[in-house]
Amino acid sequence: MAAILEKDIKAWLLEVVKADELNKKDVKKTGIHFEAIVPTSKIRDVAKEFLNQGYFLESLTAVDFAECFEAVYHFNHWKELRRGCVKILVTKEENKAPSISSIYKSANWFEREIYDMFGITFIDHPNLKRILLPESSTIHPLLKSFKGEPAGSDVEQCLKLINEDKEGFEILYPQSVTHHQKDYYLNLGPQHPSTHGVLRILLHLAGERVLDGEPILGYSHRHHEKMMEIQSYLACWPNMGRLDYVGAMSYNFAYAILIEKAMGIAPASPRVEYIRVLTTELNRITSHLLWMGTFLLDLGAFTPFFYGFDDREKILDILEMATGERLTYDYFRFGGLDKDIPAEMIPAIKEFIPHFKKRLKDYDALITKNIIFKKRTRNLGYLTKENALAYGVTGPCLRATGVPMDLRRHEPYSIYPELDFEIVTATDGDAYSRYLVRMKEIEESLKIIQQVIEKMPEGATILGKLPKNVPKGEYYTAVEAARGSFGMYLVSDGTLNPYRLKLRTPSFSNLNSIIEILPGCLVSDVVAVLGSIDIVLPEIDR
Amino acid sequence: MTLGPFWQEVVKIVLWGTFAVLFVSVNALFLVWMERRVSAKIQLRRGPIHVGPQGLLQTIADAVKLISKELVFPSQVDKLVYYVAPLLVFAPVLSAFIILPLGPGIILRDLNIGFLLIFSLTNISFIGIFIAGWSSNNKYALLGSMRAVAQNISYEIPLLLSTMGVVMIAGSMKMTEIVTAQSGLWFVLTQPLAFLIFFCASLAEANRAPFDIPEAESELVAGFHTEYSGMRFALFFLGEYTAIFISSAIAATLFLGGWHGPFLESLPAVAGPFWLILKTYALVFVVMWVRWTFPRLRSDQLMAFAWKILIPFALLNVLSTALVLSLCK
Amino acid sequence: MKKFIQYLTDIIEGAWSLLVGMSITMRYFFKKPVTVLYPKERIPIKRFKGPIAFVVDEKTGDHKCISCNACIKVCPSRCMSLESGKSAVDGKRVLTDFKVNYILCSLCSLCIDVCPTDALKHADAEYDMVATEQEELIMDLLKPFEDRGTPLTKIPVLAPGQQRGQTPLAPNSDPGTGTS
Questions:
Q1: If exposure means fewest CB atoms within 10 Å of the residue's CB, which of A244, B106, C38, C141 is most exposed?
Q2: Are B78 and B138 in contact, with CB atoms under 8 Å apart?
């Protein structure tokens, strides 16, 4: 392929691939630069070309329309926002599509999820198994024809599941039957003190060295995406808090921005934006403190957990003053907030910040410089830049490999362009750099909070009248959550409920990259590496 | 009616044995309470304060709970070995009371191999850990016990080498003679490096953080005692806490002057044990302080620490002590 | 030789970092604990969302609900239910029953937001909201008003299918029980 200028990918799509349709889109309203419908047979060439140009696969999902399925590929570039949407139409009779998992490694799990939820098989996929539902289920829940009855009676289904766990394990993984050789299988989880949530990793070990590790998901699957299709837009607010319960404000933020962009309304006043940023950054600090505590707990140091939680409790008290909740926030509304912040919140924050800065110095001396901690996390769990982009890793894990992609600067939203903060990167991609990036991010968030408090204007926080419905169309928004880029893709048909709302959660792709990191580690390292990636299971399983 | 010398010895042994068993139980109770309170203070919490004055009877309540628990007996374990393992872990530590000098002349048997007896017998407790993990028929337990064996073998060497300097200066391995040799200057001042090495190595021998890989709670669920519940688990626990106490007591005797103290020398029967206990518990406090501060080392880093750092420095210590002693002669 | 010096400096730096760490934990050893001895000491709850309750209108002392069902439709957990009947006096909608299943409530405040008359609010949260039966946590929002005998609860309600002029049911009784 001759060298194509980056901006001319649209021209290439029209002429060479002979896309059926290419529409330019208003990136401010819909979040994507262009949308192209390409013939199904050409999707592999399209993916290869995007890979050559340095794009990464941000999200891959499917939508069930009456006439056909649409498989929607979102590509984005890490240097600047160049989100393009490529679609292929899959007819219901054929129900097959070519797999791009050999080109983009992140597509592996995305395609498995589409197979699980819709039933579309992908040709040449190396491992097309269900990912979120159990292996023995026969339903495809996200189809519009599925009304909620699982196949077979409850007792039958339960017996099947029990069998699957007992004997089915050996059928699905025949190599796991003990045969007294050097290698063996060990299940890390689902009940384990160190998997952050209910996660099961099937480790293939030789002695204490890991040969292979396969995460098995789906233990906390509550199917938010279907829940949101049968509720009205307003009723979807509590779902946002329950996805990533540790850093729930960013999820609220994404939903608010998405629907505001789609409806074409602006927040009630600049004060709303300032309060949103203030609470989101406070929430980011609590999320990183929780991560730090549990990471060190996995490594065997029990005390930083308590110190981190002490600080976290103070921040939660502050946020409770504003929102009335401590963990699963649903504080934002379309065009504003649920209620305004009380007068005592800002003095409380002003009192908290110097105390917290002293604590950060203590963490630095107790943990960052500690030789045992360095030995446990340095030169461990390497994630290279190429692998990170191939798996769609975002957030601190990506920034620790050296890629300066932070959505607050990459795809600016709200008042972040006016605030002064740096994007924190590190050069090695090991667990220690991920730790350093997150600790530095706490300091950057403190900087942002101080600026916001000084500049906070007065104004209204509740928008009175809202438009009745979200106009018909497709919209994509992404924000920088504590774990990475949280994206939401909305297909709206103008009615009261969303038609399809895809949640592109960061931990899903971050966990996918563990397949590359694990081989070669020891069993103790598995826990350290898993902790350093910072996953929260409910947002992976949704 | 005076008893013959044979019967006097028998009475002495019986008394000491009873004393040792009672002391071990009470001490374990106290140490568990101390650990919980120390860790709570470090972690800005309170620890047990409700049961009994200052929560001292909390451990008794926990022991009653453990005894009343169902002894879960997994069906696939190797039965005889599974039964015997906790006993093997707990029993040898009682042997330390044979040679512990509580005061001038207060000692059960002043053996001329002294502390070497303890270290040989505690190896039996490691056989106990090994077979506990093996018999449990559980991969996690197996991993834990394999690591424990490797760890024990590696750390025996610096443990003994570090004491060689003390033996050279005191001129004998008898515990009483080592203590008398410290009436002027404690050995911790002339052998600081040996003290540190002995301390680290005894932490590793007792499977305490930062060397607690065999029972790493967050990695291996509970390591080699995953499959034990109720009283059997309590025996492992007792063994570990008594091992800490014994190592601290021996460190106090070898390095910190044993039963010597700045005052109260006029009442040797009271002052001796008092000072020994004080020094021992100070060291136990340091052991707990270390546990709650640091993360744990990985098993291969543990081995590297023993072989690449502790053993060379212990050898260096022995050589330099020998050099200095020969020069002083 | 360089490697040997590196080895020694590593050991010294490492040992120093360990000592610094230990000094920090020793400093925390002497600080006051931050925990609170619940249930003897309680932290006052400032603004935590409590169970849903009716707002008492200052002028009439009554509730403000007009049985428009907006809260029922928006609730994502489907935990609210209401029943209403026609007043025998002037044919208007009168609320006869309003229950919130607090076990399902996710405290999202959407019902409070969409209510056109601002009839709902969060009551004060308590620490000790426990029950041994599920029925105890199904809150009857109308009960405090019925106990006080406010005017709105005393309006006689027609049974479904009854016309005005026929004998109405006793005030706010269950309209489904049958004939008068």
A1: C38
A2: no
Instruction: Name chain A's partners: 3 or more CB pairs within 8 A.
Output: B, C
Residue B208 within any structural domain of the chain: yes
Helix axes A303-323, A270-299, angle to 10 degrees: 160
Task: Please state, in angstroms and rounded to a whole number, the distance separating the CA atoms of residues B23 and B32.
Answer: 14
The token pair at B193 is: 């490096």
DSSP-derived 3-state class of residue B81: helix
Coil, strand or helix at B129: helix
A190–B contact, CB cutoff 8 A: no
Strands A500-504 and A484-492 turn out to be antiparallel
How do residues B61-117 score in pLDDT, each as one tens digit? 888 887 787 777 777 777 888 888 888 888 887 777 777 887 777 777 778 887 788
Q: Give the burial class of B321: count Cβ atoms within 10 A of its Cβ; 0-12 exposed, 13-18 middle, 19 or more buried.
A: buried
Decide: A527 and A295 in contact? Cβ < 8 Å. no
Measured between CA atoms, the residue of chain B closest to residue C15 is B196
pLDDT in tens, A423-453: 988 888 888 999 999 999 999 999 999 999 9
Long-range contacts of A107-111 (CB under 8 A, 24+ apart): A107/A47, A107/A57, A107/A60, A108/A512, A109/A508, A109/A509, A109/A512, A110/A57, A110/A59, A110/A60, A110/A61, A111/A60
* CATH 3.30.70.3270 holds for C52-158: yes
B109 in a domain, yes or no?
A: yes
Q: DSSP characters for A286-300?
A: HHHHHHHHHHHHHHT
Nearest CA in chain A to C17: A370
The distance from CA A274 to its chain's CA centroid, rounded to whole angstroms, is 24
Sign of the Cα torsion C37, C41, C47, C53 reads positive
Does the bond joining B104 to the residue before it have cis omega, within 30 degrees of 0? no
Is residue B29, in this structure, part of any structural domain at all? no
Please name the residues in contact with C144: beta carbons below 8 A apart, sequence gap of 6 or more: C54
Asked if the Cβ–Cβ distance from C74 to A235 is below 8 Å, we say yes
Q: Under DSSP, is residue A156 helix (H, G, I), strand (E, B) or coil?
A: helix
Dump pLDDT digits (tens) for A451-496: 999 988 888 888 777 777 888 888 888 999 999 999 999 998 888 8
| Residue pLDDT, tens place only, A257-296 | 998 888 888 888 889 999 999 999 999 999 999 999 999 8
> CA of B297, closest CA in chain A: separation in Å?
6
- Tokens matching residue B205: 């021998």
Query: Structurally, how many domains does chain B consist of?
Result: 1
- Whether residue B157 is contained in a domain is answered as yes
- Amino acid at position A484, single letter: G
Phi, psi (deg, nearest 5) at residue A73: -110, 125
Q: Residue A445 has which token pair? A: 């968030």
**Contact present, B167 and B317 (Cβ < 8 Å):** no
Structure tokens at B299: 């098993």
The domain of B279 spans 69-328
Is C4 near chain B, with CB under 8 Å? no
- CB contacts, 8 Å: C28 with chain B: 41-44
- Those residues with Cβ within 8 angstroms of residue B220's Cβ, 6 or more apart along the chain or in another chain: A523, B140, B141, B143, B144, B226
pLDDT digits (tens, 9 = 90+) for A14-64: 666 666 666 776 777 777 888 888 888 888 888 888 888 888 888 898 998
At B298 the three-state DSSP class reads: coil
The pTM (predicted TM-score) of the whole model is: 0.89
Judge whether A193 is closer than 8 Å to chain B, CB to CB. Answer: yes
Residue B88 CA to residue B77 CA, distance in Å, equals: 17
What ipTM was reported for this prediction?
0.85
Alpha helices in chain C (DSSP H): 2-29, 70-74, 110-114, 143-148
Three-state DSSP class for residue A330: coil
Greatest CA span in chain C, whole angstroms?
110
